[in-house]
Predict the 3D structure of the following.
Amino acid sequence: MEQYKQEFIEFMVESQVLKFGDFTLKSGRKSPFFMNAGAYVTGTQLRKLGEYYAKAIHDNFGLDFDVLFGPAYKGIPLSVATAMAISELYGKDVRYCSNRKEAKDHGDTGILLGSSLKDGDRVMMIEDVTTSGKSIEETFPILKAQADVQVQGLIVSLNRMERGKDSDISALEEVSQKYGIQTAAIVDMADVTEHLYNKECQGKVVIDDTIKAAIDAYYEQYGAKTNK
């Protein structure tokens, strides 16, 4: 596993973004782990997060695109931080763009925040985690309505590797199949489990034998048949 992926896994735990225990998800599923990207709140955290996303985009997609689009609301700081990191790490300038939940009718008008879109723009979408594909379903038509853009892919921070509510494949694969785009994650839960199992992080073991058994049982029940 690449060094930046190992560092990112520990970064999620240290930032209290990724937690282990007993959680009830919005879907109603009982999960032994929970991710909340809203816990990235400091400048240092956002700078590091942008760098991890930039490296993953570079490795999975390359940098031959024009616009980084982050769906509102969590995608807004992600797109900004990552666009800055791409400039800093690779000397490549990409524009950032996000959607508003409601169109603005005065001043900086319209449904978009940040860069406007024009015909021929190559767009990379960025999210925290995709569990149902709902935000992509909502924002994909918005992108296409603004201009004749080419959506090149979707990057998320964590692939939960679990099947959707109505299919046996993961949410990322559902998005890939439905929209015909490549999808990728900085890490997936198999990476997380491999790296943290019986290893100390911040002075304690976060995935011990009990948590590992709970994770295994969760994927036995909800794991996607195939995943990215």
Remarks:
- Residues 119 and 147 are 5 Å apart (CA to CA).
